[in-house]
Amino acid sequence: MKLPREVAVMTLPSATLFPQALLPLYIFEPRYRRMLADALAGGRMFAVAMQKPGCDREKPMTVAGLGLIRAAVNHADGTSHLVLQGVTRVELTPAVRYRPYRVHGIRPLETPPCDSPAVDALVTQVRDLLAKRFQLGLPFPFPVFSQPKSGAGQMPPPSLPAKEILHYLEHLATPAQVADLVSCAVLSVADDRQKILETVNVETRLNHLVRFLLADLRRQSQKKS
Q1: CA 161 – CA 177 distance, rounded (Å)
Q2: CATH of the domain spanning 117-224, picked from 1.10.10, 3.30.750, 1.20.58, 2.60.40
C-alpha cells in the first residue's frame, strides 16, 4: 500500500489507533466533516493522534496511527459514523496547515524483524496474563471484530468468548500484532496505550505490555477483594 507524504490529523483525548485494529468514530465537528469528505474523495486515509496531556491548546502527540476508512455512513444532519482501520505507526512532522483541519507530514515507523526466544517467552507470558483476566471475569472487547453501530461518540466493540479470543491470538502472524491488538483491547490507561504505540522495538513493546497487564491485574484483584 502506497502511503501519502501528508495526511489530515484528528486529535482526540485518550485515543490510540494501532495497526490492524478497528476504531469506530462518530464525526460531528464541522472541520472533521470536511476532513472526512476530503478523505473519501482522495486516498481514504487520515491519522488519529492522542491529545498531548496538559496542553490548553490542541496539540497532538508526535506518534500517531495512520488509518484507512473501511466504512462510512453519512446522516441527514451532516454527521457520520465510520470505521477506521489502523495501517501503521507514523511520526508526525511539523504541521503543513491548521485550517480547516490539521495536516501533517508523516514518517512511517516500521517494526524491525524479531525472532528470538525472549520474544517468544514474552508472548507466552502475555497469553498467560490474559487467561488470568478471564479467570477474574474481566471483559475483553477485541477491536478487530467491531462493527459500526448507530449512536454518538466512540463506540466500544462487543466482547467475545475467552476461548475464541485466545484461539485468535494463537494464530496472529507476528509478536508485534499480539502486542498491538492486546494493548488496544485490554489497556484502559491511555498513557499506557500511547507508550506501546510509540515503542517500535517488539521485545521492548512486549515488556511494556507485560508490565502494564500485571499492574492492571493487581488493580482489578484489589477491587474484587
Answers
A1: 20
A2: 1.20.58
Q: How many CA atoms lie within 13 A of 199 on its CB side?
A: 20
Give 29's DSSP letter. Answer: S
Note the helical H segments in 58-161. 117-135
Return the residue matching grid coordinates 495526511. 7
**Number of other residues whose CB lies within 10 A of the CB of residue 76:** 5
Q: Going from the first residue of the chain to its last (225 residues), give the mean pLDDT of each consecutive group of 10, the final group possibly shorter.
A: 94 93 94 97 97 87 98 96 96 96 97 90 93 77 40 40 64 86 88 96 97 89 72
pTM of the model: 0.86
Q: What's the Cα-to-Cα distance from 160 to each of 131, 142, 166, 174, rounded to whole Å? A: 14, 7, 10, 22
- Residue 87 to residue 108: CA distance in whole angstroms: 10
30, 37 Cβ separation under 8 angstroms? no
- Residues facing 88 on adjacent strands: 66
